[in-house]
Design brief:
By secondary structure, the chain is mostly helical. It has 5 helices and 2 strands, in the order αβαααβα. α1 packs across α2, α1 packs across α5 and α4 packs across α5. The longest helix has 25 residues.
Length: about 110
């Protein structure tokens, strides 16, 4: 249970960092970031695996780089659901998904 809570807080911090760095991502307050991280986690758990299976030929053809597009689409979807969390378009979503992935990776590698 604490692992899930830590992952949720790390995703929240990653979203706040992405909103601070990338001009096309806006988060109105901490509550919107918390809800955004929760929605992003649910979307990544439910919809992302389906998209990965459906786009497997494209992913193999691009040597896995299409997964960045899928991550950007998941961030766009999460941003469209929540009122205080906005993603302006595909390119900010792509950069934001990279920031969220890097911050999440760094946090998970520090956790031993």
């Amino acid at each position: 249970m604490t692992g899930l809570l830590v992952s949720w807080l790390v995703a929240t911090i990653a979203i706040l960092i992405a909103a601070h760095i990338i001009p096309g991502i806006r988060v109105s307050d901490l509550g919107a970031a918390l809800i955004g991280a929760a929605i992003l986690g649910i979307v990544n758990a439910v919809i992302k695996p389906i998209l990965i299976v459906l786009t497997l030929p494209i992913t193999l053809l691009t040597l896995g780089l299409f997964l960045f597009v899928i991550n950007a689409l998941m961030l766009l979807l999460a941003g469209s659901v929540i009122h205080g969390f906005q993603v302006a378009g595909f390119w900010p979503a792509l950069l934001g998904s990279l920031v969220v992935s890097v911050v999440s990776y760094l946090a998970s590698s520090l956790r031993i």
